[in-house]
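Case study 2.
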Amino acid sequence: MNLNCSLWQDNSMSVKLFAFTKFSEVTEQCFLLFTLVLLMFLTSLTGNALIALAIWTNPVLHTPMYFFLTNLSLLEIGYTCSIIPKMLQSLVSEARGISQEGCAMQMFFFSLFGISECCLLAAMAYDRYVAICSPLHYAARMSREVCAQLAMVSWGVGCVVSLGQTNNIFSLDFCGPCEIDHFFCDLPPILALACGDTSHNEAAVFVVAVLCISSPFLLIVASYGRIVAAVLFMPSPEGRQKALSTCSSHLVVVTLFYGSASVTYLRPKATHSPGIDKLLALFYTVVTSMLNPIIYSLRNKEVKAALQRTIAGKKVLTPE
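Prediction:
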């Protein structure tokens, strides 16, 4: 399909308007995908918003673990809202165009929330490590100020890195083609449209991906290594089960998020396939965001009880 992309000329031709590829020429397939993505998107928004509201309105849950969970829910809401509405529009209409500025903004916010989530998951793993391995020092080492600083660092790293990545990509010239072979303005498909030699930019993207994905993941592995060692030396089976149960939800979320992100951004360029990349994108942008509140609410009795009280409109008083 030929797309009418606007061109702006200033010494050299530069693409001013991009357009996302059509998922399928078969209308029924596009409508089916639209329906599935919309349902998952609404489920994700509702679930994450309810968890954040339940924790906010229940003082008994004002602890470090649930403070980080609130931040995670807010990140998931921003993560999906930055790309899913435009994806849904592209699936059911011919209005698949996006300006270069709009594309840059979408990339910035998508990267911001994604990188911040990587860092926040590492902070959550550290919180569990301190709670299990140093319970007597937990209150001091995970004070309100420390938790706020860890959250601020997570958001700050995401903001700085995403700003640098977006500037790195959109400082290039785009002289055609203008069709993005993806559902949103992700880094690899936009780089593929740039003119000239982009090897340095691709190397920068890969290095940042390694640092922002691998470094937090190594911190998570180190934290859980210490946790497993501590659990093995616990005398009672009940204590071991309780310790592991507090980590299970986080481990499932980490596996889903890091698994899909690693396959997407850390595998060699030669192995990239537009079809596979789109399926992975759907998974780590929609499916994981939908599953996170389900995982935490189903496997956590306190969150489940808080959600029930919030939906019922009941208030919980802070215990004396």
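Confidence is low (pLDDT under 50) at residues 6-12, 316-320.
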